[in-house]
Write a structure and sequence with these properties.
Distance between the termini: 67 Å
Protein name: Helix-turn-helix protein
Organism: Cohnella xylanilytica
Number of strands: 3
Largest sheet: 3 strands, antiparallel
Helix content: 40-55%
Strand content: 5-15%
Number of helices: 4
Radius of gyration: 18 Å
CATH topology of one domain: Arc Repressor Mutant, subunit A
Strand order of the largest sheet: 1-3-2
Structural class: alpha+beta
Order of helices and strands: HEHHEEH
Amino acid sequence: MPKTTTNSAKTLPKAQTKEAKAAQPYSEVDVLTINEMARRLHIRTREAYNLIETPGFPLINLGGERQNRVIWGDVLQWIRQNRGGAA
């Protein structure tokens, strides 16, 4: 007879877990990777990396390649101030 284990905590399928995370509101104090920022802005990762090269962009460098982070509220504020006259 195969050995079975019981788990009292039910787990959601991965797709449902992602949906639940996506439904949660974003906090302005969230610290994000560049990939996470790209997902929130609905832009390609390459476009996000181009964006962080813009002078004055609120980037936090933690000391090495692939160690860049942004604070979500700072990104939103920067976009509002630098949207090139768009309403």
